[in-house]
Amino acid sequence: MNARIEDYALIGDEQTAALVGRDGSIDWLCLPRFDSGACFARLLGDEHHGHWRIAPEGAGTCARRAYRSDTLVLDTEWETGDGTVRVTDLMPQRDRAPDVVRIVEGVRGRATVRSTLRLRFDYGSIMPWVRRLDGHRVAVAGPDSVWLRAEPPVRTWGEDFCTHSEFTLAEGERVAFVLTWHPSHEPRPPLIDPYEALESSVTDWRRWARQCRYDGPYRNAVVRSLITLKALTYAPTGGIVAAATTSLPEKPGGVRNWDYRYCWLRDSTLALGALLAAGYQEEAQAWRDWLLRAVAGDPADLQIMYGVAGERRLSETELPWLPGFAGSTPVRTGNGAVDQFQLDVYGEVMDTLSLARGADLPTLPHMWALQCVLMRFLQTAWRQPDEGLWEVRGGRRHFVHSKVMAWVAADRAVRTLEQHQETLGDLEDWRALRDEIHREVCEKGFDAERNTFTQYYGSRELDAALLLIPRVGFLPPDDPRVTGTIDAIRDDLGHGGFVRRYDTEAPGGSVIDGLPSGEGAFLACSFWLADALHRTGRTQEARELFDRLVGLCNDVGLLAEEYDPAGDRQLGNFPQAFSHIGLVNTALTLFGGDQAG
Predict the structure, then answer these.
(1) Distance of alpha carbon 365 from alpha carbon 142, whole angstroms
(2) What angle do CA 468, 383, 301 make, to 5 degrees?
(3) Which residues on adjacent β-strands are paired with residue 76?
(4) CA angle 314, 319, 323 (to 5 degrees)
(5) 9 and 65 in contact (C-beta within 8 Å)?
(6) 17-20 and 9-12: which strand pairing?
């Protein structure tokens, strides 16, 4: 099977997504939503856990592949001794049912092509019953039904609990496969025309990409990142999932394997800023509206993440039948961090809504009332220890970044009242709160001996999240405490020229997160370092770092969560929204100027 995370490309329909390997195999696909059970789970196991490969007979990995410019339509080509074959993969915008379209075309000479489809529902654990019906192969198990057809029909047979097809193509000849999911108790959905779907998908994606206002250096990387964020958006609600996958490891063979198919509040301000600055007002408003619906309720119950429609119960479960990517177990669905208390999310919500108001997104009548309720809760809750931005599982602490974000919440509330005098609120109380938090953080969260802020009160450890201090306005960029923190983080958390989140290398494992040691450089944090360097006047260093970061993108422009400099490989769930948000925001910071909003 594919041995590297970066061997994969993404296709999707803004409700779910699939990963396609260099060998032409779709090894991951959850239907009908991002967080549904996978019908192809080879990514986390082997071929017996479900996949769909189309490639020339006897061929290995492809000769080349690329997205069609400014689209999510993927072309993969193989060179054989007899000819050249291209497979075009896409998931068209759905009407009712999700479709995967795979168009196989002879480019040169003649070549024999084989399709091997092995459907296994519920993450590879359920083998469906397959039958012929109306020119289709129909697979059914419980609530799931998948229909496969080829246009024109080709020789197809069942063997070894798979559906096989084989055919020969000459130059200019094409065969299109369409795989459609729908609930097994419902009639088959209307058929789509695969060639019309290809044409409309290319047109729609390019029309969307043209909205991008950024026209500076690295524009292709910025547009690819924006397309990836769009692909990770659940269109019915506007929620943006952190990644399309679960349990891709932060260390091969390790246990840091988490489910990222949910929407994190930590992403909210950075995601909204990227969308607004790049010119995507509609997507920004949809994300803002999703956020307001998700967090509605008792502020004491605010979660760090929610499902794509705002679901709150995301119980963590292990799937013991899957051996994991590169033997990394356990494989998990759901995420136990949903039950953690993270103080920073209050700041992120307040900052996001402040940013939305400043960008003149339509104001909803209940928005300020919700913010006032959050602030009243925060007036006492900010004193509590929490699990922090990184969802540590080693016990609560007074994390400095969390306290800084509590300050951000108070600051944005004060600014709103000062700028909109018709708005009612506890201005003096919130000013006093802002000042009190600031004073305490500077007293208890700063190591004067080393001239750096620390990960939590009284500690000597560092945290890359502290690079955000100048970005959120807690201290000005030229404050010696800011430059000292940047230098300390680069020196102590530097990893192959990039940045780790915090120290996970303690003997016997990290005390902070309660897990065995080891993870890669965190790409979002490395983009934050570039931002911080630029803000403190070291723009040339920042641009050099940004150039190296963009160079980590795989051949189709995608980034995972982390990078391992020693192994020269990507790590963690893929593609990662947080990394691509970082790429967009840093490009806008370094090169935007008058060229972007």
Answers:
(1) 44
(2) 85
(3) 65, 87
(4) 135
(5) yes
(6) antiparallel
Q: What angle do CA 496, 500, 506 make, to 5 degrees?
A: 100
Q: Which amino acid is at 150?
A: A
What is the residue extent of each domain of the chain? 5-208, 211-591
Task: Say what the alpha-carbon torsion angle 144, 149, 154, 159 is, to the nearest 10 degrees.
Answer: 0
Q: Cα–Cα distance between 580 and 564 in angstroms, integer?
A: 17
DSSP 209-232: HTT----STTHHHHHHHHHHHHHT
Q: How far is CA 277 from the centre of its chain?
A: 19
The SS3 call for residue 510 is: coil
Residue 227 to residue 245: CA distance in whole angstroms: 17
Positions of E strands within 417-462: 446-447, 452-453
Q: How many CA atoms lie less than 13 Å away from 276 in the CB half-sphere?
A: 21
If we measure between CA atoms, which residue out of 175, 183, 116 comes closest to residue 146? 183
Residue type, 43: L
Q: Is the pTM of this model over 0.85?
A: yes
Q: Structure tokens of 92?
A: 């068209």
Distances (CA, A) of 478 to 339, 448, 474, 499, 537: 38, 17, 12, 22, 9
CB 285 within 8 A of CB 293: no
- Blockwise average pLDDT, block size 10, the chain, 597 residues: 85 98 97 98 96 95 96 97 96 92 97 97 96 91 96 94 96 97 91 96 98 96 98 96 97 94 92 94 95 93 95 96 96 95 96 93 90 96 96 91 98 95 92 98 97 96 97 97 98 95 70 78 98 97 98 98 96 97 97 54
Q: Which fold has domain 211-591?
A: Glycosyltransferase (1.50.10)
Instruction: Say if residues 22 and 145 touch (Cβ distance below 8 Å).
Output: no
Q: 5-208: what CATH class?
A: mainly beta
